[in-house]
């Protein structure tokens, strides 16, 4: 992540380990419904860095993050619950100039620093650029190398908020059912009978 080192250099945390936690991280979507572009955005100090992600990747984050946090809490009960800001700012900020389109997102936990790590891999190097990169490596006599990746370090509280925000971003583009007012999925919608819904909250009564 050499192109973002100047922003990292301003942060004192874990400098000896080259681990620079973000100031904040969020996800969102821009554009008209049905043609939205999903964005993952992290701040290092006051400087924003953005990546384009797919809707499916945003949905996967909304599921993978709480699962990871549950696993961490179970394995390390001494850590307690994630610390979450009382009034977090989860809005995207300008300029929205993505570094690249993300091909894959890895999610893991670093116990040493008590941080969640997101590993973003450039989609171009995973797909169309693989043959060119391999040919260049062969010409230069280099061994096969992995695609370039960016690692983002966040607190467990920031990760929790990101997972919730990613879920909201996915749902925000869906049409609402005129009967139950719930978001309708792309593949269809199950609308429960009116007598099965809680009139105050729209929740299903069990």
Short description:
With 206 residues, the protein is an alpha+beta fold.
Number of strands: 6
Class of secondary structure makeup: alpha+beta
How many domains, as an integer?
Answer: 2
N-to-C span = 49 Å
**CATH level 1 name of the largest domain:** Alpha Beta
Shape: globular
The CATH topology of the largest domain corresponds to: Secreted effector protein pipB2 fold
**Overall mean pLDDT score?**
79
What's the gyration radius in Å?
Answer: 20 Å
Largest sheet, in brief, is:
6 strands, mixed
Helix fraction by DSSP (H/I, runs of at least 4) = 25-40%
Q: How many H/I helices?
A: 5
CATH architecture of the largest domain: 2-Layer Sandwich
Strand order of the largest sheet: 1-2-3-4-5-6
Query: Uncertain spans, ≥5 residues at pLDDT below 50?
Result: 1-12, 196-206
Helix-strand blueprint:
Layout: H1 5-9, E1 24-30, E2 37-44, E3 47-53, H2 55-75, E4 98-110, E5 115-122, H3 123-126, H4 130-140, E6 149-154, H5 156-172
Parallel strand pairs: 3-4
Antiparallel strand pairs: 1-2, 2-3, 4-5, 5-6
Helix pairs in contact: 2-5
What does this structure look like?
It is a single chain. This protein starts with a helix and ends in a 34-residue tail after the last helix. It contains 5 helices and 6 strands. The chain has 206 residues and is of the alpha+beta class. The chain has a 6-stranded mixed beta sheet with strand order 1-2-3-4-5-6. Helix 2 packs antiparallel against helix 5. It has helices at 5-9, 55-75, 123-126, 130-140, 156-172, and strands spanning 24-30, 37-44, 47-53, 98-110, 115-122, 149-154. 22% of the residues are buried. It is globular and about 50 Å long. It folds into 2 domains: 2-173, Secreted effector protein pipB2 fold; 176-206, no CATH class. The longest helix has 21 residues, at 55-75. A hairpin with a 6-residue loop joins strand 1 and strand 2 (37-44).
């Amino acid at each position: 992540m050499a192109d973002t080192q100047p922003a990292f250099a301003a942060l004192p945390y874990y400098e000896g380990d080259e681990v620079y936690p973000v100031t904040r991280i969020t996800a969102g979507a821009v554009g008209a419904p049905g043609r939205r572009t999903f964005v993952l955005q992290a701040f290092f100090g006051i400087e924003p860095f953005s990546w384009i992600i797919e809707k499916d990747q945003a949905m996967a984050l909304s599921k993978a993050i709480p699962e990871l946090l549950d696993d961490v809490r179970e394995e390390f009960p001494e850590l307690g619950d994630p610390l979450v800001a009382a009034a977090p700012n989860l809005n995207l900020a300008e300029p929205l100039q993505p570094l690249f389109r993300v091909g894959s997102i890895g999610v893991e936990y670093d116990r040493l620093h008590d941080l969640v790590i997101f590993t973003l891999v450039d989609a171009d190097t995973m797909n169309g650029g693989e043959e060119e990169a391999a040919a260049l490596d062969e010409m230069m006599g280099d061994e096969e190398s992995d695609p370039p990746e960016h690692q983002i370090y966040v607190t467990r509280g920031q990760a929790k908020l990101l997972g919730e925000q990613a879920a909201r971003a996915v749902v925000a583009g869906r049409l609402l059912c005129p009967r139950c007012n719930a978001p309708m999925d792309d593949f269809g919608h199950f609308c429960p009978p009116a007598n099965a819904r809680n009139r105050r909250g729209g929740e299903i009564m069990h």
